[in-house]
Amino acid sequence: MASLLDPDARGRVILVGAGPGDPGLLTLRAAEALRQADVVVHDGLIDPRVLDLAPATAQRISVAKRRARHTLPQEAINALIVAHMKAGSVVVRLKGGDPFIFGRGGEEVEAVRAAGLTVEVIPGVSAALGCAAAAMLPLTHRDHASAVSFVAGQCKGLTEQDWSGLAGQGRTLVIYMGVATAEQIADKLMADGVAPDMPVAVLEKGTFADQRALKTLLADLGPMVAREDVQSPAIIVVGEVVELSDADDKLARWAKTAETLA
After folding, report:
1. Which of 34, 236, 242, 252 has CB 3.0 to 4.6 Å from 175, enough for a Cys bridge?
2. What positions does the domain Tetrapyrrole methylase occupy (predicted)?
3. Does pLDDT of 196 surpass 50?
């Protein structure tokens, strides 16, 4: 089958991963798709320089989603994509990170296929990979971690999830969308057997100009997120590999301050 990036083809949907923030991490194939777009349906926090790759005549529609504040519900986004494609437009659905890692890309592909249409997916650098690299944090390492897992920190029934075995010696756990539930996440991991002194990092706005990388111990995760006023987007990394990163050690600083005040 011919590529959906055929410039002569009309009425198509291309799901594009925009990466974690830095426009330099956009793939060449993603840039090619944007240059052909008639309509760009994009997430929030997409760098304007990425949007500028689309033709000036292209319609740009923001469907930004933040915690408890959605521009459009997912079903409406699906319907919007399908409607523009049926009208003959080249629709680029531009998503932060990678479309298939906590990006609801699977749901959008299902919606397009259910309408009897075809869709292409162009992967992007995921938040976990981009943010970890920006913090010099290797998610795997021959001496420290031979496995890595990804979970959503805002999943339904968080306390009922079985996370045992996902974090610990020789394993790395990456938690997306976990800032608002950081304290509950720490409690859950410790209840599931992870040591309270396991290193943990919070990577805030990774690859953006104002990124921050903070590290502490698991037992201090919730308090650190609160006292450092960590904001989304951010990911949490749990595992021995955190010690290899350039993240700022916030536990040591807090302990020193507490000792001075005592």
Report:
1. 236
2. 12-221
3. yes
